[in-house]
Design brief:
3 domains; 10 strands; 9 helices; three-stranded antiparallel sheet; Trna Endonuclease, Chain: A, domain 1; 304 residues; alpha+beta; single chain; elongated
Length: 304
């Protein structure tokens, strides 16, 4: 799919609009202040012929800054506004899909909305998300996730007609290695071939098909809030819940990358699910508390 030709100004607005809105506002303020200072400089007094070239360049820069001090802030301000509008649309899109219970919702949206949906899911699960996509349905890395000092890459493919094969997954893993990413998520509305699933076995790449994405969204909606439940005589058992599939987690020790030799909470469903939490994770990060001990305490003991 060929990309439509756009002007440099449109490209700049597009790039900045993918960033958080406050970055656009900050760029608008900084660009105005810097260019206003340049535009306000007094003209250079020429005392000898050798200064004529310097004076001409300085005069040209002042003229450009005179216009730029209004144009650039307007561009950055527009991008910030677009970022706010896109964020609102993204949240509404996610809420609409979350209210449904079928995979068909993924196939009814455009590839751009599918990318926004995935980005909103990870934002709601504590990641800082930066979009790199919008170059077409078959672009490279679409989302960059940052959390706890680690970077994860995401590629989204809203393919309705056929399975995702091993080639695009292999290329995605190559990009991950080149950029030093701690892990990656390849997300599709469809399914993967057996060759693709076999390729990622043992790698830090999570293949998420339409059904798994649907379950992830449903699990996030049903995720228990942070509670403190105490029995009259003892505290309930604390179980950490996987942020991806909702299963129980247990302590693991990293073997590769930045987590080598470090303990962390890992999903018991690994390698099918590679959800993790930091070891110092607190109750506020989504810990579920069981009431099994409380129920057991309420049952009277049998008398001989």
């Amino acid at each position: 799919m060929a990309r439509q030709k756009t002007s440099p100004l449109e490209d700049l607005i597009l790039v900045v609009s993918k960033l958080p809105w406050w970055i656009g506002v900050l760029l608008a303020l900084v660009s105005y202040l810097v260019l206003h200072i340049i535009a306000s400089r007094p003209a250079l007094t020429i005392s000898n012929p050798g200064q004529m070239g310097v004076a001409a360049v300085r005069s040209l820069m002042s003229a450009l800054a005179m216009f730029g001090q209004y144009i650039l802030p307007l561009i950055f301000g527009t991008a910030a506004l677009v970022s706010v509008i896109n964020s609102i649309k993204q949240k509404k899109l996610y809420d609409r899909v979350e209210s449904r219970f079928d995979v068909a919702a993924f196939n009814e949206m455009s590839w751009d909305d599918f990318e926004r949906l995935v980005g909103e899911y990870y934002e709601r699960n504590g990641f800082q998300v930066t979009r790199e996509g919008s170059n077409g349905p078959d672009g490279g890395v679409d989302l960059v996730l940052c959390k706890n000092g680690e970077t994860h890459l995401v590629q989204c493919k809203q393919w309705k007609a056929y399975k995702v094969g091993v080639q695009p997954v292999r290329e995605f893993y190559g990009v991950m290695a080149a950029r030093g990413a701690a892990g990656g998520y390849f997300v599709t509305s469809g399914v993967y071939t057996e060759a693709a699933q076999e390729f990622v076995r043992g790698l830090n790449v999570d293949l998420i098909d339409g059904s798994k994405l649907r379950n992830m969204i449903d699990t996030a909606r049903k995720k228990p809030s942070a509670l403190t439940i105490k029995d009259e005589s003892r505290q309930a058992t604390i179980i950490r819940v996987c942020p991806k599939c909702g299963a129980e987690m247990k302590k693991r020790v990293g073997r590769l990358g930045s987590t080598a030799g470090k303990e962390f909470w890992g999903c018991i469903a690994f390698p099918k699910c590679n959800g993790t939490r930091p070891l110092e994770d607190s109750v506020s990060a989504g810990i579920a508390l069981t009431v099994s001990q409380k129920s057991a305490a309420s049952v009277p003991e049998k008398k001989n």
